[in-house]
Structures are given as structure tokens and as C-alpha cells.
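Lab notes, practical 5.
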Amino acid sequence: MGYFGICCMHLDDATMEDATGRPWCERCKNRCALINYGHAHHWPLVSVQHYAIGNDQNLWELAALIGHDEAVETLLNGLTGTNDYEEAS
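Output from the prediction step:
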């Protein structure tokens, strides 16, 4: 495992990097996974329960960076069809 720098949300050491090159710590794995999903699917318009993300990379990045933990988790679970993103990998 390489050195990824400092998490873009916390002052913790980053343990992963998303598809756009942004570093994330372990606490932010769902945020990283949300960006990776958006990137892999070309930033689609999505709606899961009462949360939505527009079809633009900037909107996906905003959702990952400033979205509440519950929103990020709900979106990710709905998009991947699991309760734990790692199971969908």
C-alpha cells in the first residue's frame, strides 16, 4: 500500500484514493466509494429514498464531501444494492 497523504475531510492519514485522485481515510470509505460509483457510471442522476445527486461530477463531489453520513450511506446502499459497500466490490 502506498502513501496517499492526508484525508480530504479529516487530518488523518489517508488509506485510500478515489477514482479522481482525492485521498480518504478509513472513516471516509463510504464517501470514497460513492465517488468511485459516480465515476464508474459517468456521474448519473440518481435518487435513493429522499436523497438525490444530479448528473454532474461536481454535484457528486459535493455530496461526498459535505453530505451527511446518513445520506452518503443511504445513497451508496441503494446504488449498490447492499448494506455494506465492501460486499459489492
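Observations recorded by the TA: The beta strands are 16-17, 23-24, 46-48, 51-53. Residues 29-84 form one domain.
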